[in-house]
């Protein structure tokens, strides 16, 4: 019987065995490390594909497929489309095998991935930016294939590529740390999930395979529900490495029998997982690389006492994206909440709110601009170590007579759109301060320095992860004399704060909307 006549899963298992002979010409096995969580939870083992030659698992499939090129195919060269990591695998193989490769990538591909392709491929690769999505890049690459006769190396819908990805599961089996109760495998086109799940199920039939997809890019979940691959109308690009509109046909056929269920995770949950990896392993994962762990953390309580496997599929993240991820930490967590609170527009009420309701809580973000003579609606993002403390906050606000609304995840909060009516201000002063990140620093400043008739008219503060938090504060005074007196007498440094450079006249006018 020819290999092609075997059932698809048996073909894949055979190809994984053959891939053992090829992939280690291009790179070495990656470590399997234990991730320790604080408090109860599962025993988590992390497959560190971020430590591979291209900082992602995709080298395995690309190298395995290209190692099978015939001499004639090698002369014609290869062409492919990729969001970034597969492209690096093709580039690594192209340079090693001395095969020319043309790589089509979306125009939005992070620079770090484009530069890595050129680094790994050198003179043997050309990058062509085409379209704004992976699908458009595929169309351009397929047109090149038809016109040039180059061999198309698919990122996931190819048995040889899938077999190469399956070698990472082979390393897990041989590690001696198994068997595992469950494996959480992220899915884009499905090639890695298919290859890895097939191999793990071969040796540990009782293992639960959980496919993990982004909530806005769940193409495999849609395929399993429809009993065939279907195209999504839109795809969220935050986890760009898994942003695939339609699951692969071959991966779908495998995953139908090997994936027990599919979980979806939000971008905020992925960001929290990235932070957990940094704190636990000092590893920086790209968003798609942390999706498996995000699902584990989401189901942490149900997984207590179990041993689970997670794959960090890549670490090729644009440095600028780290800022967005850091800002979003906690947005979807049970220990963070954004509330807008109604208080009378009079001196001392902000301090009263801090004293009565927010005592002991961590204010991570504070946004306020004066828009009314009678009432103020400051917005606070609160972090708490225990979810119970946040659950109790609404009752505290109700008990003290403060009206409030939950703005967690609101667009204007996320974009820091802080309104301020300059026509309501009499004699404002704007201060640029650094607060030391310790409990009570903001409270102490308001209590000790903002006295008399001064009223808060503007506050823009957000934690930055440093030892200090930077704030721009606006104070309004009944007369210019009281304003000037404060500006002349306030110490440059006090208990819990440091006064930075003065705000110039032009900035003051812009803040007032003039």
Automatic annotation (TrEMBL):
Choose any GO biological process term that the UniProt entry carries and state it: isoleucine biosynthetic process
Q: Which cofactor does it need?
A: pyridoxal 5'-phosphate
Q: What is its EC number?
A: 4.3.1.19
Q: Which UniProt keywords apply?
A: Amino-acid biosynthesis, Branched-chain amino acid biosynthesis, Isoleucine biosynthesis, Lyase, Pyridoxal phosphate
Q: Does the keyword DNA damage apply?
A: no
Its pathway? Amino-acid biosynthesis; L-isoleucine biosynthesis; 2-oxobutanoate from L-threonine: step 1/1
Q: What class of enzyme is it?
A: lyase
Q: Which InterPro entries match?
A: ACT-like_dom_sf, Ser/Thr_Dehydratase, TD_ACT-like, TD_ACT-like_sf, TrpB-like_PALP, TrpB-like_PALP_sf
**Which parts of the sequence belong to the ACT-like domain?**
337-409, 429-504
Reaction(s) catalysed by this chain, per the record, are:
L-threonine = 2-oxobutanoate + NH4(+)
One Pfam family from the record: PALP
Keyword Amino-acid biosynthesis among record annotations = yes
Regarding protein family, the annotation reads:
Belongs to the serine/threonine dehydratase family.
Descriptive protein name: threonine ammonia-lyase
Instruction: Say which species the protein is native to.
Output: Luteolibacter yonseiensis
């Amino acid at each position: 019987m020819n290999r092609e006549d075997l059932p698809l899963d048996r073909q894949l298992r055979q190809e994984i065995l053959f891939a053992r002979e090829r992939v280690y010409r291009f790179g070495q096995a990656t470590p399997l490390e234990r991730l320790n969580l604080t408090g109860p939870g599962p025993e988590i083992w992390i497959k560190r594909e971020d430590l591979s030659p291209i900082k992602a698992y995709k080298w395995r499939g690309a190298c395995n497929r290209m190692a099978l090129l015939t001499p004639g195919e090698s002369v014609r060269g290869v062409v492919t489309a990729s969001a970034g990591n597969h492209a690096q695998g093709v580039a690594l193989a192209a340079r090693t095998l001395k095969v020319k490769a043309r790589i089509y990538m979306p125009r939005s591909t992070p620079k770090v991935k484009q530069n890595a392709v050129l680094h790994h491929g050198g003179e043997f690769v050309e990058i062509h930016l085409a379209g704004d999505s992976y699908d458009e890049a595929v169309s351009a690459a397929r047109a090149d294939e038809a016109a040039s006769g180059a061999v198309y190396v698919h990122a996931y819908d190819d048995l040889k590529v899938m077999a190469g990805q399956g070698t990472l599961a082979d390393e897990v089996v041989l590690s001696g740390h198994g068997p595992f109760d469950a494996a959480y495998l992220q899915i884009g086109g499905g090639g890695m999930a298919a290859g890895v799940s097939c191999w793990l199920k071969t040796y540990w039939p009782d293992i639960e395979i959980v496919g993990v997809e982004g909530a806005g890019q769940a193409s495999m979940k849609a395929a399993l529900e429809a009993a065939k691959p279907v195209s999504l109308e839109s795809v969220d690009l935050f986890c760009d490495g898994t942003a695939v509109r339609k699951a692969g046909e071959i991966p779908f056929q495998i995953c139908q029998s090997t994936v027990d269920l599919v979980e979806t995770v939000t971008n905020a949950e992925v960001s929290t997982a990235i932070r957990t990896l940094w704190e636990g392993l000092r590893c920086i994962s790209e968003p798609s690389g942390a999706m498996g762990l995000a699902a584990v953390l989401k189901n942490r309580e149900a997984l207590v006492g179990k041993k689970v496997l997670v794959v960090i599929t890549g670490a090729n993240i644009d440095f600028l994206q780290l800022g967005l991820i850091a800002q979003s930490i906690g947005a979807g967590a049970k220990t963070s909440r954004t509330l807008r609170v109604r208080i009378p527009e009079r001196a001392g009420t902000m301090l009263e709110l801090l004293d009565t309701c927010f005592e002991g809580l961590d204010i991570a973000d504070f946004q306020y601009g004066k828009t009314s003579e009678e009432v103020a609606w400051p917005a606070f993002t609160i972090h708490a170590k225990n979810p119970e403390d946040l659950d109790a906050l609404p009752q505290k606000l109700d008990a003290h007579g403060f009206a409030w609304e939950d703005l967690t995840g609101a667009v204007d909060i996320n974009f820091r759109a802080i309104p301020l009516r300059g026509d309501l201000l009499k004699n404002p002063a704007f201060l640029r301060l650094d607060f030391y990140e310790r409990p009570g620093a903001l409270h102490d400043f308001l209590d000790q320095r903002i006295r008399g008739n001064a009223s808060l008219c503007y506050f823009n503060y957000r934690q930055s992860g440093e030892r200090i938090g930077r704030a721009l504060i606006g104070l309004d005074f009944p007369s210019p004399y009281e304003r000037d007196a404060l500006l002349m007498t306030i110490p440059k440094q006090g208990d819990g704060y440091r006064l930075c450079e003065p705000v110039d006249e032009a900035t003051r006018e812009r803040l007032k909307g003039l």
